[in-house]
Amino acid sequence: xxxxxxxxxxxxxxxxxxxxxxxxxxxxxxxxxxxxxxxxxxxxxxxxxxxxxxxxxxxxxxxxxxxxxxxxxxxxxxxxxxxxxxxxxxxxxxxxxxxxxxxxxxxxxxxxxxxxxxxxxxxxxxxxxxxxxxxxxxxxxxxxxxxxxxxxxxxxxxxxxxxxxxxxxxxxxxxxxxxxxxxxxxxxxxxxxxxxxxxxxxxxxxxxxxxxxxxxxxxxxxxxxxxxxxxxxxxxxxxxx
Length: 241
Hints:
12% strand, alpha/beta, globular, 9 helices
């Protein structure tokens, strides 16, 4: 009799264990489904959402806080709608704007005619008026023409934000040439690549980058003339010394 009771008790325990296993399994499936669903949401929105929002949503995915995740997704969608409205507004306005048929240099010239004495830019406290800016553009354009640069030719400007870079950019625009802007801290191989792909005939840089640019030019697949500018020429007197 005692043996039958032990067998019955053992079967009852096995049944209970089995029931608990199924409950755990069911809970695990639900949790996984929730995680997958929120993962799809994250993947679909990561490209247009801030990193902070993505981190918040990922954290919620881990703890399966559905109410909070739905609220954040709602905020994201509202933000997307606002951005969409701004884009639609900008596109609508574009159709009503009257763009002048002028080059960038011609637009600068128009401003210079109206405000010749006003500062066009300032470098280390030294201001350059539009009248002087236009003169610098014209002189640079004549220098490029004397160097053989013509319409559609490419010139690489490998310089930081200095006045010579601005002057030469608009000078090239004035004669119809292409200004290939390259960061001066680029690696030598990168500079060589940009020279080759743009087929630049000239590269303009500052004296502090001369050696690196010379090595980059030596690896180019065509001849490139190097023009060197000095920052001291455009600095205020108390800094140029």
